[in-house]
Specification:
By secondary structure, the chain is of the alpha/beta class. About 50% of the residues lie in helices and about 15% in strands. It contains 12 helices and 9 strands.
Length: about 270
């Protein structure tokens, strides 16, 4: 197993869900991103979703959109994100899942990106707008290099799409808790968690639930039902509101530590 699968298995052995934390690379700058990843890992993050900033992040809500805008304005590129992964990997073994959109990958070149990501120490890809049936160009070389491919399933996904996602998932499936964008409010997280649990039973794959999970109470609601819990916008908002780097680091440590208290199975 790779680092991501190991992290989920370790969490299962500890009778808890894995905590997946999203950070936007380059927000507020790439050097700070390195420190933020290490801080989140030390505070209890099992996996880091490292967002590759993109100019049109259609699945992301306002907080992550603003983070991407700040990162791009600061000069963040896919190549520089990989440099940041190299720096992070010298300091921590936390799994790093590159999260983003297909457009920069296409420009970079799928095979080249796989080679460079593997060399940098990344652990896999989650590409929001790359459906399983069109993923072979990235997925096949990635798996051959030992990198994971994580598909997304939404409440609107039909049985065929669910089967396709299960077929290509190498570590876990990301279940989007609702239709809409990240950072939105979920009317009923408990129902979303039950749907995710049903998906987990159907596919026999670990499932992580994201979108709308913001607090330790939210984590506590979701964790008993799924293999992993994803938190993004709440973390990005802490960074956005921080007055300087130290405040951002302390804020992320505090939030991740608090979120981790809700992971135990009840």
């Amino acid at each position: 197993m790779g680092r991501i699968a190991d992290a989920f298995e370790r969490a299962r052995g500890e009778n808890r869900a894995a905590l997946v934390i999203y950070l936007c690379a380059g927000d507020p700058d790439l050097e700070t991103t390195e420190h933020l990843v290490v801080a989140a890992a030390e505070a209890g993050a099992d996996v880091i979703e490292l967002g590759v900033p993109f100019s049109d992040p259609t699945a992301d809500g306002p907080a992550i959109q603003r983070a991407a805008e700040r990162a791009l304005a600061g000069g963040a590129t896919l190549a520089k994100v990989l440099d940041t992964v190299r720096a992070i990997r010298k300091r921590t073994e936390v799994p790093i899942l590159l999260f983003g959109y297909y457009n920069p990958i296409l420009v970079y070149g799928e095979k080249q990106l796989v080679d460079d990501a593997a060399e940098a120490g990344a652990d896999g890809f989650l590409v929001v707008n790359l459906p399983p049936e069109e993923s072979a160009g990235l997925r096949i070389p990635a798996v051959a290099k030992g990198l994971d491919f994580v598909p997304l399933v939404a409440p609107t996904s039909d049985p065929q799409r669910v089967r396709q996602a299960a077929d290509v998932a190498t570590s876990f499936i990301y279940y989007v808790s609702m239709t809409g964008v990240t950072g939105s409010k979920v009317a009923d997280l408990a129902s979303a968690a039950e749907r995710a649990a049903a998906l987990q039973r159907t596919t026999q794959r670990p499932v992580a639930l994201g979108f709308g999970v913001k607090t330790s109470s939210d984590v506590r609601t979701v964790a008993p039902h799924v293999a992993g819990v994803v938190v993004g916008s709440a973390v990005v908002s802490v960074i956005e509101d921080a007055s300087d780097r130290d405040a951002a680091l302390n804020g992320v440590r505090e939030l991740v530590s608090e979120l981790a208290t809700g992971l135990a199975r009840q």
